[in-house]
Amino acid sequence: MTKAGRFVIMRWFAGVFVLGLSALAACGVGLSETAERSALEQGSIISDAAFQGLSVRLQQAIKEGGPAHAVEFCSLNALSIVDSLSTAHGAHIRRTSDRVRSPLDKPDIKEERMMQAMLAEWKAGSKATEIPARVVAYDDSIAYYRPIFISSPACLQCHGSPSETMDASTVDAIAERYPDDKAIGYALGDLRGMWSVRWAR
What we know:
Layout: H1 3-25, H2 33-89, E1 92-96, H3 109-123, E2 134-137, E3 141-149, H4 156-159, H5 168-177, E4 191-200
Antiparallel strand pairs: 1-4, 2-3, 3-4
Helix pairs in contact: 1-3, 2-5
């Protein structure tokens, strides 16, 4: 078999794998097209607000004391900021990943399935613009999942490679605050994790 033939078969198997994971991730109740569109819009508004609320404060922390100070700031304030935004929007907002920094951000079973589905799409060659946000309806709630990518070199100051994009003080701050950290070693464009937003039906 030629290399081209093997490549086509590998992409086909990857596609089948992605579809299977997506089906597992979407083990919920069906939504009408209108309801799905409305849920996607609501989830986008909430996750945009959460991103803005966190990024503004994070950028301020970096200005005040550099990336190491931002690590300390996140360890002390990120959860309370997200909790206050959750209350304001009547939803449960989380950031999660297959490689978490804080153990409090570890995905639950439903989030893990969706995270793995997105990772499979990305590893199969999908671009960031080809991995859309998605919603799943459960008996008591609507869940919105949106991928998070390393979209700026600034992200690599805390999530890149030690001695390359991360300075020694930042590496030390992470080791002190997050001894089980797994959220480094990323490159620009990598899939970092996802937003997980749930609200009552």
